[in-house]
Amino acid sequence: MPPIIEISGLRKTYSRAFRQPHHALDGLDLEVAAGQVHGFLGPNGSGKTTTLRALLGLIRVDGGTMRIFGEEVPRRLPEVVAKIGAVVESPQFFKHFSGRLTLQLLAESAGVSKARVEEVLEQVGLRDAAKASVKGYSLGMRQRLAVAQALLKQPQLLILDEPANGLDPAGIHHMRELLQWLAHSQGVTVVVSSHLLSEVQQLCDSMTIVSRGRRIVDGGVADIIAGHGDSSLTVRFPDAASLPEAAEALTAASGSLDAAKSAVTASVDRDRLVVRGAPEPSWVTKTLADAGIYLSELRTEVKNLESVFLELTGTAPVPGRTVQIGESVVVPQTAPAEVSVGDVSVVVESEGAER
Amino acid sequence: MNLFKAELRRLARRRLSLIFGIIAAAGVLVLAGVFWFTSSKGPTEEALAEAQAEADRMNDENFEYEQCIEDEAYLDQPDYEWVESDPYYEGMTREEVCADVFGVWTAEDLIWTYTFDFAEESPLLLIGVAIIAGLVMMMLASSAIGAEWSSGGMANLLLWHPNRMRVWGAKLGAAAAVCAAAVLALMLLAFGLLYVAGAARGDVSGLDAAWWDENLPKFARAALLSVGMTVLGASLAMLGRHTAISGGIIAGYLIVGDMLVRIAALALQMPFSERLSLYTWVTAWIDGRTELYDWTDLYADNAEVMVITASEAGVLLGGIVLGFAALATWAFQRRDVS
Fold it and tell me: Which CATH architecture has domain A5-226?
């Protein structure tokens, strides 16, 4: 099945008087498969919203190609727009209109029935607030209204920029269930741009991470985390004095492992030992016991999306300084390398990226 | 068509539309009320008799008049010899001559009456109503476009209708249609209320075919001017993406710009300098023609005359409106929507 969204080599440059031009998109590629919830992630200013705006015909681009449902956009956007529901950036509406009237006007303009307006109001939980002016809505209610607007035309592709923004925990939960139901039961392809990484991890099937207008990595969420998992073991001892001795024992024992398994490292980090590359946790306990060292705690540290994201985008906090906007990794423009993770392949566009 | 209807509804449902509509209707009502309360078909007999008695009393104190009536030789005095030779007084009775030369009070001099002449006065009023309605619609249209930009509604709408020309066409068409309907409604309301005021308290005679032939084209041109002003307001708001920019440019030109143009024209001693003022062309458009006079040649018997016809004014004013509309179209088509 061809991808629902195909973006290749997208470029957008903002000219600025007396300053260097800003390359918001610098050859960005993106593919979204049908029927999935696809996360679109990146640090602030990495080009996510610009990409979505370009895709939806709101801004002009300087190069590259975009296709939705196989049709070239923005040239053929009017032909496919009926199948696309979208919310781009913070939801804003005419504040003196009620939520219902806001939706009715859009529905009327596109020949959507009034009954559908009531359906989506119910679906996003705004039924009882539909009569009130938008100016009295909280950010979360406006977000719901924006999603209702996107759902109004029963889209086959739903593009949501920060859909959980402003929602309360119940709202986030409801939104997650709604989007997953749309994708997995109704066959709607959902693209979600978000900064809530835990939310993306729970919600999305696949994702693309971008930095400085270029793709860093894309693939299944679980595969990307696994591909960059590099899980480690944290070991604690009743006596901190055992730490150097334990590290030495583990390093020495790693020499007896197979060549492929020999990259065991053990480093002391304050009151704990961090072990990487160990074949199994049991190998650590056995090795230490054989050396006469007994541990008090052994914990497997598994990387989550947040740590993978921070690592890939180079935006991990550095003690004593704040990472500035636009300080994320620069991705060299090379052909993406394919990394095999089990049976699944993950495309990684940079390794050893520089800051 | 759906988009056009939705835009019509969007305009109609705006709170500002309601407020402006109420203010405009109230304004017309006040206008008719002013004529209702100031106009009368003439004084009552009682008021007339009272005024006549006062006039008689005052005339009794006018001794020269009394002497002129009583003494036939009074006007033969050297001071009044000119009366006999003035052809103006030929055929007048003695009382009339004396009244004219020495002044005599009549009841009409002491009682002020104003009679609203509908046929004479209503055309200017109705044209004024059309132009004010046009100004109001211009503000409404620019506010509708400006608010759409500042509220983010434009981006939302473009997510549904990516064909920007269609969106702009629907918005412009809806604004023009609402303006035309509003101007027509206000003119009809004003006509009706003024006619009622005239019929009850003034004079409504003279509404014959000639009156309609003379005034109907003026009304139509005034209404068309209002539609043009609406399109101009919407176009400026689309260019500036803000209501205030449209209002600022128009008010700035009408208040300061026009004055500066006139001062510059006078400083340059330019012949027919009034042609640089937009007001001149608006007057020519509505009146059908206007004449400008140039007296720079002080020794000429007659001034040079420049005639501006409605067609010429229409080309200029229409060109300005279409020029800004085209500029707004071009900008909207190319502009990034953030």
Answer: 3-Layer(aba) Sandwich (3.40)
